[in-house]
Amino acid sequence: MTELNATHTPRIGDYLKRLKSPWTLTLMIPVIVAILDQPNAVPVVTFAVRALLGTLPYIVFAVIMIAGLKAAGAESVIAGIFKGREVRMIVLAALFGGLAPFCSCEVIPFIAGLLALGTPLAPVMAFWLASPLIDPPTLLIAAGTLGWPFAIGKAVAAVGLGLMGGFAIMALQSRGLFTSPLRVQPAKRCGCGPDPMNGKPAWAFWHDAARVDTFKHEFAQNALFLLKWLAFAYALEALLVTYVPAALIAGLVGGEGIVPIATAAVVGVPAYLNGFVAPALIAGLMEQGMSSGAAMAFVIGGGVTSIPAMAAVWSLVKRQVFVAYIGLGMAGAVLSGIVFQLVA
Questions:
Q1: Which residues contact 215 (CB under 8 A, 6 or more apart)?
Q2: Residue 336 falls within a domain, yes or no?
Q3: How many domains does the chain have?
Q4: Structural domain harbouring 105
Q5: What is the mean pLDDT of residues 275-301?
Q6: Buried b or exposed e, range 167-196, using 16+ CB within 10 angstroms
Q7: Is the N or the C terminus of the chain less surrounded, counting Cβ atoms within 10 Å?
């Protein structure tokens, strides 16, 4: 009997998916520049390569840190902060929101489990607002690209936004709002890592062969992920600095006052890609005249309204809670921008 092997005929959509890959787009940028504007091809490539090499030490340290946290099972430490008095939970959730070593698919079952177990919405909201804004890898990438003052300012803004959101929700709940926030039952785990709700971390993970394998896997995966997105980010920054008129950027988000800051917060909604690409784009915008306050508002507003962050919230809670999340995030972005402008 003859076996017929099914063959897959590539569709146009398959090719389009490949074209949308950051690697493909990164390689296409210098090619397109060389075709359309040959004199600037070498400067664009040189700018992007130098920027990537300058950030390389931060990339290595960030990859080692996140792989170590995952191998040790540090997620269970984060689960422990959602116990005790509500005020204490809000403060700890805001502080530790930026340290959570969750992948995007782990956030949903973690939060769903907390809400299903009766954890108050206020500390969950504090964690939710702070978590997408900063974590160890993005903190280091921001420091390497924009400097430590901006990176620390972003971390402080993330914690401040978490505190503001947590206490705002607690105040609204005391008035009878958000009494039943959960939309769905807890989602099943995706299978990528230990259960964050149980277990104890093993900090000396190198004594366990399985955890060492986890470390190697996470190191390779995160190194590839960071290099992919940062190469794309610096290629975009090179284009931005080369071709976008400085007067245009300065006119939109330059100067002092609340209007450029609010504009940057709103622009961050569609323009923000992820926490690894954003610093390079912001560096380019600041070179072209973007104010420091507008830059902070852009990164805070864009982080809260990024697709993964919004999808996690929308999939679990009712519409009014989602609206509160977006409203608190945008208000916090503008406030963060104003404060950072005054300090910087």
A1: 67, 68, 70, 71, 205, 206
A2: yes
A3: 1
A4: 39-191+198-343
A5: 85
A6: bbbbeebeeeebeebebeebeebeeebbeb
A7: N
